[in-house]
Amino acid sequence: MNLQRFLPTLVLSLFLAAEVSAQSAAKLTVPGSSVTASTYDVANNAVPANAVDGNLSTRWAGQGDGAYITFDLGATQSVHFIKIAWSQGNTRTTTFDVLASGSSSGPWTTLVNRSVSSGTTTSFETYDFPDTNARYVRIVGHGNSSGTGWNSISEVELWGATASTGGPLPVPGSAVTASTYDVANNAVPANAVDDDLSTRWAGQGDGAYITFDLGATQSVHFIKIAWYQGNTRTTTFDVLASGSSSGPWTTLVNRSVSSGTTTSFETYDFADINARYVRIVGHGNSSGNGWNSISEVELWGPTSTVGQVAMPSFNPAPGTYTSAQTVSISSATSGASIRYTTNGTTPTSTTGTLYSGPLTISATTTLKAIAYQSGLTPSSVRSGSYTIGAGGLDPSAPPSGNFDLSHWKLTLPDASEVSASTLSNGYELENTFHTDPVTGGMVFRCPNLADTTTNSSYSRTELREMLAPSGSASAPANNWVMSTSSSTAKSAAGGVDGTLRATLTVDRVSTTGDSAKVGRVIVGQIHGPDSEPIRLYFHKRPSDSRGAIYFAHDTPSNSNTYHPIIGDPGNLNPTNGVLLGETWSYEIKVVGQAMTVKVTPQGRATVTATFTLESGYNNLGMYFKAGVYNQNNTGTADDYVQATFYSVTHTHP
């Protein structure tokens, strides 16, 4: 048989079979009467029900940042991923979130955060997330790239579990091979199944491949792939399967392209197939460097893997929450015992904490669990991250509704300023300074390429302390001095000594431009008239898995030095570094000439650095700054930094 002649028909048949397969995941039924929205386009009858009518020529459309559409599943179900067909999706991108809840009134769990559609198709695009038990699923729109403010969706499909969905099939690192790998960076094949998204396999060249041996022929239902740098570039690839390591190979996924929007798992479905070997063949990525890089792979099949305990499941599912969560762990294998860890180590059947009941997770934590039973092989390890935001914040309020901004002014990326009185009256600026719709945090965003203030080469979205906000910023009453200053200076100043405290997540750093500047952002400062006693940096390059935190110090005459806290400019990607999206706190405290800097990643020990300020800072007026001060003025026009603050306070003392 001429295989190439029949391959297109075969691929099409497999694709169609995947769409109707009930063995891997099922499309959940949502009638039009169960779809509601915060708003819709009345003039064009773009009603919510249009999103589930099976017709790509109709649409729901809601205008404005935060417009949303909600799907009621009728009862709590396990939701695995969502497919969205965007109206005019081949000519513009849309920024959006996906949320889930057990109740129509919340609380809501973020499944997809600030994702961006491809802008290349009006067909369905798939967005994967950790399997979640929910009754309600909501899509929140943040406008489209044409600038009209509309959020328009032609069709939505929610996919979830059926009785035979199953789970990840166990593949040990020793059973993974590749045609090539990146020796210099130890990007070996086994990294693709080590349950660690910070490691990777990488093979260069069109046709480089990685192969997974299941040990015996099994039913494979779909594959999940987490792409390295998957939020900044796309990768073109195939998925093949065979009963023998020498083939013949059946094409399951042909010339597919990753989304380019996430480093989390993306799901690629195909007709259920019996195979022992599964191979991913790479055809390079959109950056043009020829690498095919994969952080993690999961092959999914039936849960009833003979002789092995079913992998544990977490309820509620990993995700972002505004308050502490009570998490239950269970296994489908009756009578199985479970051990878990919350400190980053991997549990075994003899190590870790023995599960005896639900546990409370009150800080950002990575939960890992294994199930085991006498006479059976222990399960694979389940891993998931819970991000806990600060409580008590109102997601529907402007920043001033959650934070005291009466003694701050705001500098924007166009170098303009917003006064304390305007800030306190509910000021927000879309995509620059606003309230996060899920956590209520105060979001600061700043592009690489924007205007700068006098004597600066970089742009910012940053608060500037104003102790006497109605007066001039340079007035002594608007600034503070060290207690080692003269009595005259202390009498005229707005404060003596000071402490700046903040809790935040750095959500994004720059990824393009000058390699010496990529990934740098300042999130807190003390500023003097002509120099800066401290600039607190978060620094993560695209190749790093974790960010370093360090500070820069200027002498009064502007001689600059760098000082480590968690890493430093010469020690980037530290093993104890902070992830993007991980909650952490800082404290900058000055008493006389003694400066103390504390950094506390949530759930971990505080790291403290001390420094003695020069006597030349005596009598000089100083002020705190907080937000994002982008330290990259190169790269593409759409590149930016972003941080979300959950608390920020300044006291004297």
Keywords, please?
653 residues, mainly beta, eight-stranded antiparallel β-sheet, 5% helix, globular, disordered N terminus
Structure explained in plain terms:
By secondary structure, the chain is mainly beta. Helices cover 5% and strands 45% of the residues. The strands form seven sheets. Strands 1, 2, 3, 4, 5, 6, 7 and 8 form an eight-stranded antiparallel β-sheet that branches. The radius of gyration is 26 Å and the shape is globular. Mean pLDDT is 88; it is low at 1-24.
Number of strands: 41
| Cα radius of gyration in angstroms | 26 Å
Give the integer mean of the pLDDT values: 88
Class per helix and strand makeup: mainly beta
Please tell me what the overall shape is.
Answer: globular
Ends: how far apart?
83 Å
Q: Which residues sit in consecutive blocks of at least 5 with pLDDT less than 50?
A: 1-24
Number of H/I helices: 4
